[in-house]
Write a structure and sequence with these properties.
Structural class: alpha+beta
CATH class of the largest domain: Mainly Alpha
Number of strands: 8
CATH topology of the largest domain: 2-methylcitrate dehydratase PrpD
Radius of gyration: 22 Å
Number of domains: 2
Order of helices and strands: HHHEEHEHHHHHHHHEHEHHEEEHHH
Largest sheet: 4 strands, mixed
Helix content: 40-55%
Strand content: 5-15%
Length: 470
């Protein structure tokens, strides 16, 4: 009998060493650490972030516990994980994988807290993050749209699994311990879409709770009382059947290709094919599928010297699933009408203003500025933007044609591969946020950038935590 999905991941994770990681993976993990530490520092300036920290210290404060980023207060392992995840989550500055998953919001807090409490080095943190990211990304790869169509929000479902592996690896769990961690995490994963269509704000706790639940899974596994169901992932009543409707890879929706996932691919070539390299970064406080629209139209406006008044129509072609946010089963606004916060809005904003403000940037970010009431943008989106959702169109890869009043037309494409930045490319993109970086502006951010480059040489992660404090 062949090994189950959970068993293969448990064995691989338990045996993974820093020396097994290709340089490109190490570079990607450094980038993950950097972007989420920057995000947490910005998040610590927000009312929601401060409230979460205060709540955590009040309910779960622990003098010898784990550190809360920026604040420096100490809380329980699980409490500090929650608070740190909330600091990242409130900003919108984070990574992105597929649609509606941004693993770092949950995985980085799980890594920071457990690396600190377990006395792990920078290399061990990077190794654990690589294991957790690869697990979460491979589990989610073909299954995100099908998960969303069942009413489950993919982010907390897959984040819980990744955070559990990060925590378990840093706790030093062996194969049996990792097996139990994965099984417990599968039983703890949760998050519904109802709030996305009817309001209530429930989803605001999804990602921080996923971090918390993932760490809880590893803590419980370390006790040794749970063995874990071998087929917890692909069993007839397991993870995939519950969250996608099938345990054989049958899909209800997919960005492109046949509605059948290759179940063997989930674990094939572990350690040689790295799915985590497909992670992108959210620089704007909107879903990742809007970023390429913003970037492409900003480029076209600059390159062709386009003026909004001279444009007759902007036609944007994207994957059809990107017009049905958050879920093809439960779209927020059926028919994808032009509204503030929708595809039309971000296209119009890029045309009228030459882009969109970066999180922490000049006019929009965690300090409460609001750019949503620009009447020129609203007028443009209502009259001049057309969004086409195409089946089998590549994910997050818009094609845009701008038709001018004088009969000219300009066309551009923005393939997803352009969003796959390395550390230096991420640093370049973060410069727009440097002016408002709360810990010393551009110089302070540059200092953090240089520090994270050396994370591999750190015997402990204390320098990272110290760098986030005032």
């Amino acid at each position: 009998m062949s090994d189950t999905i959970a068993r293969e991941f448990a064995r691989w994770t338990a045996g993974l060493r820093y020396e097994d990681l290709p340089p490109v993976v190490v570079d990607k993990m450094r980038a993950q650490i950097l972007v989420h530490l920057v995000s947490a520092v910005f998040g610590a300036q927000t009312h929601n972030g401060q409230d979460s920290v205060a709540l955590t210290l009040r309910e779960e404060g622990k003098a010898d516990g784990a550190s809360i980023i920026h604040d420096g207060g100490k809380a329980t392992r699980i409490g500090a994980t929650f608070a740190n995840a909330e600091l990242i989550h409130v900003t919108g500055l984070m990574d992105q994988y597929r649609m509606i998953t941004h693993p770092g919001v949950s995985l980085l807090p799980a890594g920071i807290v457990n690396a600190e409490l377990e006395g792990r080095s920078g290399k061990e943190l990077i190794t654990a993050l690589a294991a957790g990211y690869e697990f979460a990304c491979r589990l989610a790869e073909d299954f995100v749209p099908a998960t969303a169509a069942r009413g489950f929000r993919p982010a907390p479902i897959y984040h819980t699994m990744g955070a559990a592996v990060v925590a378990g690896k840093l706790m030093g769990l062996d194969e049996a311990g990792m097996m139990a961690t994965i099984a417990i995490a599968a039983n703890c994963a949760s998050g519904l879409f109802q709030a996305g269509s009817s309001g209530g704000g429930d989803q605001s706790v999804h990602d921080p709770n996923a971090a918390r639940q993932g760490v809880f899974a590893a803590v419980m596994a370390r006790q040794g009382h749970v063995k874990g169901a071998e087929n917890i992932i692909e069993g007839p009543a397991g993870f995939y059947n519950a969250f996608t409707g099938s345990n054989t890879g049958k899909l209800t929706y997919r960005f492109e290709g046949a509605l059948q996932a290759d179940m063997a691919a989930i674990t094939s070539e572990l350690g040689s094919r790295w799915q985590l390299l497909q992670l992108m970064y959210r620089m704007y406080n909107t879903g990742g599928y809007n970023h390429q629209i913003i970037n492409l139209l900003a480029e076209m406006k600059r390159d062709h010297k386009l003026e909004a008044d001279a444009i007759r129509q902007v036609v944007v072609t994207i994957n059809f699933l990107e017009t049905m946010y958050p879920s093809p089963g439960f779209p927020r606004l059926p028919g994808n009408p032009p509204v503030i916060g929708g595809n039309h809005y971000y296209a119009a904003h890029a045309v009228v203003n030459g882009g969109f403000p970066q999180v922490g940037g000049s006019t929009f970010g965690p300090t409460g500025e609001d750019v949503e009431h620009d009447q020129a943008v609203i007028d443009f989106m209502n009259t001049k933007v057309r969004i086409i959702g195409a089946a089998d169109w590549p994910m997050f890869s818009p094609s845009i044609t701008v038709y001018m009043n004088d009969g000219q037309a300009f066309t551009g494409d923005y393939p997803y591969a352009r969003m796959l930045w390395n550390y230096d490319q991420l640093v370049e993109r973060l410069k727009d946020s440097g002016a408002k970086y709360p810990l010393g502006g551009p110089a302070g951010m540059a200092s953090l950038v240089d520090l994270v480059r050396t994370v591999d040489d750190m015997p402990s992660i204390e320098p990272l935590l110290r760098a986030t404090r005032p």
